[in-house]
Prior knowledge:
Elements: H1 3-6, H2 21-24, E1 32-41, H3 44-48, E2 55-57, E3 69-73, E4 76-80, E5 86-87, E6 89-95, E7 102-108, E8 124-133, E9 138-146, E10 151-157, E11 168-169, E12 175-181, E13 187-193, E14 207-214, E15 219-220, E16 226-230, E17 243-250, E18 253-260, E19 268-274, E20 282-283, E21 290-291, E22 304-313, E23 319-326, E24 339-346, E25 353-354, E26 364-366, E27 387-390, E28 402-404, E29 412-415, E30 418-421, E31 434-440, E32 446-454, E33 462-470, E34 473-482, E35 485-494, E36 497-506, E37 512-519, E38 522-528, E39 535-536, E40 541-542, H4 548-551, E41 558-564
Antiparallel strand pairs: 1-27, 1-30, 1-32, 2-26, 3-4, 4-6, 5-28, 6-7, 8-9, 9-10, 10-11, 12-13, 13-14, 14-15, 14-16, 17-18, 18-19, 19-20, 19-21, 22-23, 23-24, 24-25, 28-31, 29-30, 31-41, 32-37, 33-34, 33-41, 34-35, 35-36, 37-38, 38-39, 38-40
Amino acid sequence: MKQNIMNLAFFRNKTNILAAAALLSVTSISAQTFSDFNYRGNDKIYNDNPLKPDEFYSPILQGCYPDPSITKKGDDYYLVNSSFSMFPGVPIFTSKDLVNWKQVGHVLDRPSQLKVENSGVSHGIYAPDIKYNKHNDTFYMITTQFAGGIGNMVVKTKDPSKGWSEVQKLNFDGIDPSVFFDDDGKAYIVHNDAPPKGTEQYNGHRVIKIWDYDLEKDQVVAGSDKIIVNGGVDLSQKPIWIEGPHIYKKNGKYYLMCAEGGTGGNHSEVIFMADSPKGPFVPAKNNPILTQRYFPRDRKEKVDWAGHADLVEGPNGQWYGVFLAIRPNVNNRVNKGRETFILPVDWSGTYPVFQNGLVPMKPKLKMPQGVQNQTGQNGFFPNGNFTYNDKLTDKNLDFRWIAMRGPRENFITATKNGVKVNPFATNIKALAPVSALFHRLQHEDFETSVTLDYKPKSEKELAGITLYQSETFNYVFGITKKDKDFYIVLERTEKGQSKLIASEKISLSKPVKLQVVADKDEHNFNYSLDGRNYKNLGGPVSGDILSTDVAGGFTGSLIGLYSTSSNDIVPN
């Protein structure tokens, strides 16, 4: 799957054509307000594995939170994730114990930092790396932005919760950069790149490069680049997609950890050691140190695709690693996307090894000594089968509400009755900012509902819920108008081709409650005109188009509160 990323490299040199102002204009069409959003997960894995007082769940971040990177300053840990074309970009979380996490915002929260206006959902921001430099008391976030002609880039801050600098473009090709600060104050950048021209031996042959990094100029030192890994652990075995590199220093030795095998079923994590940050790096004999690729496809409570990891020393000197993995449903669908997991790491020997990272993973871990599980309480992010309720009346919406390709503030208005999603003249299939507030899908069995106060004035107007995997794979469940009548409609879009599943004429004397109930791979779209009794529209429909294995790309699915003045769904 990762090879698709490299095909996007041409975006760096493409002029980024801004969406036409007319498409982004907020119109004063029909008043519509969303309120009382409810989301409840009911996954069997959590029902079958209740927590004991000394346990917590992994993944620590459920839903589309892939490519985790972690750092620490004092007792504070900070974690970031890929965000692709979601806006704002690069969600950032903080913790003091690696169990209880609070989101403190996003690293890229301004259009000047994030140029994704015309990007496909799986373009944009890939594989961010966050590191704290004790020598200048500064945090760095370095990543690849496949949009706006930016490429590899870095931003920095003294306080991760109080905003980050403007983008500094970096002068090298490739993807997945990370920064390493040595004890002597010197800095280096490592990243994935293509092998030198004419030396590529097979599809997926990549190398890891290192550069000296000038901290004063925030730029790599020209001519300092060196290949430190060619292909992977064993070039003769034709390893593919060596990427996601990180360097660590322990007991005077330098360790290079990378993902290998691509971000699918062969994904793994491998480790090398050297006496210098520039190598030569020697692979551990027991590689990989983390993978789930060796086990039966039909195993119970399956976790798969494990890799793209980062290490940190945790409380009491115990090392931990965060990494991405997936939990497919009974039909092997990947609707939730790649999630952030954690495992303790045994570094008592020469090389680190993920504890239980080479056996089928379990949903629960033992709590670090002295830690109390507060997930879902006191402002900490929930996990397990949690319920999330939001009346949508707060002027400052929760950080988990995001937009696509542009700021949510461009189309929302806070009111005492809920949030008004002012419609853009673009619909959900556009490669442009869309007027939809998104929440990540975080369970395979879930129920979500929202109250919608809305009366469209024409067939071009629609508001409702979207289940969104991408601009070419999604469901839309909403209210529109035909002639003088109001209709509720359900549309399925697959490979960009849309099909009306069902429509019904309805009366709109008061707000409508819209509901989606998912059971494994079946989704039911229901509505209520009296706030109590629900009616199904279109029968159960498959969640197949919400899965990465069908839709492609790198994101999990999103639940959107959606409005448009460019509706193209025609009721029967």
